[in-house]
Specification:
Keywords: Phosphoprotein
Strand content: 15-25%
Pfam family, one: PH
Number of strands: 6
CATH architecture of one domain: Roll
Number of helices: 5
Shape: elongated
Radius of gyration: 23 Å
InterPro entries: Boi1/Boi2-like, PH-like_dom_sf, PH_domain
Order of helices and strands: EEEEHEEHHHH
CATH topology of one domain: PH-domain like
Structural class: alpha+beta
Distance between the termini: 45 Å
Organism: Heterotrigona itama
Protein name: PH domain-containing protein
């Protein structure tokens, strides 16, 4: 094992080298681990004292074993890492949205005057070309026939 210094920023876990004098080289990270589609495993028996691992769903053999200096430090890291992914926060949003919908009878993401579902509804419409969300805030409405007249060169993304 090599000693590294870690910094968690959103769903990115940066790690930095520590030099011979024990100083952290913060000029540039030595690497980054993207925290999506992963799980945190606590297994001190196989990993060692105050150790935990990060395993990825598609690549279970690609595990990162990390350890802390104390049990409380490991608990803090594990809690922070479990809450780091987009997936976690998306799930939390859905749960809160359902709770608010049950209490108020309305979907909180569709409440007036903020957006009335315009943005969200358009995002899920089947479309063959890239469209900007900026159009949703204008008062004019572009029909699907007008969108079809866009030349082939203007289509940025084809599905």
């Amino acid at each position: 094992f090599k000693e590294k210094w870690f910094k968690l920023r959103c769903n990115l876990l940066f790690y930095f080298n520590i030099n011979e004098l024990g100083q952290i080289d913060t000029r540039q990270p030595a690497g980054v681990i993207i925290l999506e589609n992963y799980s945190i495993n606590l297994d001190a028996a196989t990993e060692g004292v105050f150790a935990f691992s990060i395993a990825f769903r598609d690549e279970y053999e690609k595990r990162h074993v990390l350890s802390g200096r104390s049990e409380s430090q490991v608990e803090q890291w594990v809690n922070a890492l479990k809450q780091a992914s987009y997936e976690y926060w998306r799930f939390r949003l859905i749960v809160l949205q359902e709770k608010l919908c049950k209490k108020t009878g309305k979907d909180p993401l569709l409440m007036y005057p903020r957006n009335q579902g315009i943005i969200r509804d358009e995002a899920w419409e089947p479309a063959s070309t890239f469209r900007s969300h900026v159009r949703s805030f204008t008062t004019s409405v572009v029909t699907s026939t007008a969108l079809n007249t866009v030349t082939k060169e203007m289509n940025l993304i084809e599905f």
